[in-house]
């Protein structure tokens, strides 16, 4: 998962941010190992020793960066949330706006879900293990969509409307399309799914 | 939660279906108590004695109808899934079809989410505690939407399209709108949210 150096550093518990490139590398290894450990076993069965074993680091280096299993779980949810946002941002070519931009974002998200199948299990378990991060993840995603729609509306590309509600609707659609056509079943091209949704967002489905 | 007598009876573990009205009543009490117990405490912390205490029944009557905590949790997920379907079905006036019908369904679902806030926690926890029921719940909901769209398409009300994908998109939108405007914040009228979504489904949002 690609995140910036700054984002990786800020994943550490307060006062434990790495100050060297090597420290950031270890922190990154721990986060990637945590994604596998929590993804495979779930929050309750996952253990710190399981994470350090998967990361190939000493148990002590876990505590160099994190205070607890809860702390690395929260850091992981924020890290994954950022990775989803980064994947969406990377999928937006300059000058592609409005519905076409949402189509690119959905295509990229379906690809992302296929290559990071553990993300659903981890984000969804946050509803129980870390409700604040769960809520922040979805509120952030819906807000980013609404902001893009606001821009497109100002540019005259979209019919004025309630972009907050549209944002939540589009995000919810994307989440379940990612589960259905990304995690559960990869047999259909991501582009085909995104094209169907884009047609719906562009022109609706009522016969005229 | 209203379900038919047959549905309540079939919630029992195999061979333990109640044969009297009084038995069905006890089973119903146990399911309603289980919704509170699992909703408040989550699957792991919930207990059979907590369920019978809330239901005001003897511990023995739990085992008259259910084999285990897992069994009543699965029964509860199926029961809630049926309650969501029943609420949607009750919201469809004769002759209202196509996008207008989806608008009625979303309005009813937002109201349902507001009065059954525990449903998200329980269905979402099924992703971990009972993955088969989790999947069946969402597949069933998406399939029902797709079937309604197929009917409306045949009647010439909708532009032909991939109703399976449309069904998953609409269901996902409804799930997150229910979380955002039903469970987390009830300040906006359900009708207003549903009208925004209906406008999007009817005509899309691209400026013409």
Task: Write a short abstract of this structure.
Two copies of one chain form a homodimer. In chain A, 75% of the residues lie in helices and 0% in strands.
How does this structure look, described?
Chains A, B: Residues 1-23 are annotated as: Disordered. Chains A, B: Residues 1-13 have a biased composition (Low complexity). Chains A, B: Keywords: DNA-binding, Transcription, Transcription regulation. The structure is a homodimer of 208-residue chains. The first copy, chain A, is mainly alpha-helical. The first copy, chain A, folds into two domains: 5-72, Homeodomain-like (Arc Repressor Mutant, subunit A); 91-203, Orthogonal Bundle (Tetracycline Repressor, domain 2), CATH 1.10.357. Chain A contains ten helices and no strands. Chain A has helices at residues 5-9, 21-45, 48-55, 59-65, 69-90, 98-115, 118-129, 131-154, 163-184, 190-203. In chain A, helix 2 packs across helix 3 and helix 5 packs parallel to helix 8. The longest helix of chain A is centred in the N-terminal third of the chain and has 25 residues, at 21-45. The model of chain A has no long low-confidence stretch (mean pLDDT 93). Chains A and B meet through helix 7, helix 8, helix 9 and helix 10 of A and helix 7, helix 8, helix 9 and helix 10 of B.
């Amino acid at each position: 998962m690609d995140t910036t150096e700054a984002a990786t550093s800020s994943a550490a518990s307060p006062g434990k941010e790495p100050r060297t490139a090597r420290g950031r590398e270890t922190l990154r290894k721990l986060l990637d190992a945590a994604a596998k450990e929590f993804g495979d076993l779930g929050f309750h069965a996952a253990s710190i020793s399981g994470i350090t074993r998967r990361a190939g680091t000493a148990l002590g280096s876990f505590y160099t960066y994190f205070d607890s299993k809860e702390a690395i779980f929260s850091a992981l949810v924020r890290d994954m949330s950022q990775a989803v946002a980064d994947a969406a941002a990377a999928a937006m070519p300059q000058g592609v706006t409005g519905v076409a931009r949402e189509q690119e974002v959905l295509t990229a998200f379906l690809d992302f879900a296929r290559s990071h199948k553990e993300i659903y299990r981890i984000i969804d378990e946050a509803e129980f293990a870390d409700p604040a991060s769960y809520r922040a993840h979805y509120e952030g995603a819906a807000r980013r969509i609404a902001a893009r729609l606001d821009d497109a509306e100002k540019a005259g590309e979209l019919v004025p409307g309630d972009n907050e509600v549209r944002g939540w609707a589009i995000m919810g659609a994307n989440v379940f399309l990612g589960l259905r056509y990304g995690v559960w079943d990869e047999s259909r091209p991501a582009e085909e799914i995104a094209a169907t949704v884009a047609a719906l967002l562009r022109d609706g489905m009522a016969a005229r």
